[in-house]
Specification:
The chain has 244 residues and is α/β, with parallel strands linked by helices. Helix content is 43%, strand content 12%. α7 packs antiparallel against α8 and α7 runs parallel beside α9. The model has no long low-confidence stretch (mean pLDDT 86).
Length: 244
């Protein structure tokens, strides 16, 4: 497997044929694990026919009720979206496909999350992922077919990073999702304690989440950051007590 730690997640795919084509694309680029959120299209005849000789990937696909459960054992989730916002829209700040990190140098499972053919991923679903990226397309027709989008992304990763043998350069252990979430537990408390207007607090929290998601962080780095966030939290509490 040239991309052994990549997991492709399809959120509520609407066309069984696309699921079959996606299975074939995974086989083309050395990815073995497919997860499907919402319903089970594996027995659909169209899906089976379009998967051609990648039926094993289709048949072994995991079926999940919702996206959080599909990402439960994932170390980092990268979501694709065509709905890029302007600079002031922190919840939709996207990076271009070419700026994705090299997944072969990261430990743990990396999920590539793709949304519905008709509407993509919701803002809430994008918020569950550490990083959101976009595929460059013509402005005249920016929407890609689901299986085509998966093919473009996997081709990019495969052609740039897919090796016949595992990369010899392995970065230190990547921070887990739980470790990154722990940082935000304290940062949320810090932001709540600051003298900010109420409507600015959710924006500030989202900015910190975006920064954590776009940055590759090791377990040691996140542990250090959590300690700093805890100290900031203590300082904010002390200032509140003095003011009282």
């Amino acid at each position: 497997m040239e991309l052994p730690n990549i997991v492709v997640v399809l959120v509520e795919p609407e066309e069984p044929g696309n699921v079959g084509f996606v299975s074939r694309v995974l086989a083309n680029f050395g990815v073995q694990e497919l997860r499907i959120v919402g319903w089970d299209p594996r027995e659909d005849m169209t899906a089976q026919i379009f998967s051609v000789r990648a039926n094993n990937i289709l048949d072994s696909a995991g079926i999940f009720d919702d996206l959080p459960s599909a990402l439960e054992d994932i170390d980092a989730a990268w979501a694709t979206s065509a709905r890029a916002g302007r600079n002031h829209s922190v919840t939709r700040a996207l990076v271009p496909l070419k700026d994705l990190p090299d997944p072969t140098t990261l430990e743990g499972k990396i999920a590539l999350v793709f949304g519905r053919e008709s509407s993509g991923l919701t803002n809430e679903e994008l918020g569950l992922c550490e990083l959101a990226f976009t595929i460059p397309t013509s402005e005249a027709y920016p929407s890609l077919n689901l299986s085509h989008a998966v093919a473009v992304v996997l081709h990019h990763l495969f052609s740039n990073y897919g090796l016949e043998e595992p990369s010899e350069i392995i970065l230190p252990r990547a921070a887990t999702r739980n470790e990154r979430d722990q940082v935000m537990v304290f940062m949320d408390e810090v932001i709540d304690g600051l003298n900010l207007k109420d409507y600015r607090k959710p924006i500030a929290k989202q900015v910190f989440r975006n920064l954590l998601g776009r940055a590759y962080m090791t377990g040691r780095e996140v542990t250090t950051l959590t300690g700093i966030a805890r100290k900031l939290y203590d300082l904010v509490n002390e200032c509140e007590k003095v003011e009282d």
